[in-house]
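Backbone shapes recur. Consider a single case.
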Amino acid sequence: MNRTPQSVTSLQPVAPPPESVTSLQPVAPPPQSVTSLQPVAPPPESVTSLQPVTPPPQSVAQPLRPIAHRLVLVSEHLCPYVQRVAIVLAEKGIPFERVFVDLSNKPAWFTDISPLGKTPLLRVDDHVIFESAVICEYVEDISPEHPLHPRDPLARANRRAWMAFGSEVLNDIAGLETTTDPSVFERKRSAIATKFRRMERALGPGPYFAGDDFSLVDAVFGPVFRYFDVFDSIADTGVFREVPRVNEWRAALKERPSVRAAVGADYPERLRAFLARKNAYLLSYSAESPS
């Protein structure tokens, strides 16, 4: 009978609730986790870093009235990057002026305002924006009532990626049209054909890149395909073989008024003259069945 008090006494230290509660208190981290997230939120800094990219303050105050500014597109007659900006401005219905420069003999006023010495430039009142992708995004921002980009951030990022892809195609075209070396020509021709086959898999039902709606991706590829309107009159490069969707897309862009108006009527003659000055291998290229 004396064992009953002992058993009760032996159980007392086994009861751990106060200790277990105490041991859990430092594990609860909500205040710390909230504190650790505070410096990660960078909106004020990101906004500040973007301010220089939006040149005129007036455009921020009046995003739906781009006509309030005088827009001058500094251009070169053959430049595909100039063309994409002209296409976007036309699609937006924004009036603009064009001034052409000879990049082989750049005037002083041009080198003074062009950090990279390249076209296009967009003069917005007294401000100058350079780089075609930046200009296109600026035009998109000041006229959101006629969007050429989707609103969804992921879809918009995807379009920007394909715009960059189009610029890579233009880099290959630059090599194709200027080289005098047959091996370089074949390497560039093959690279373009490969990119068009990759593009074939990305295209939907059409008629444009994203279906019925014309987008900034279409503005990029209109000038890409225009090159081949001239190249095809010289030789069959074979880059459009086995890409039926790309061919349909090319045909639709060729008929788009904004794409047609982006260059002068003398574009084909100017491009042929450029090829002649470069003594381009393309002018003598002949292949019955390019690989």
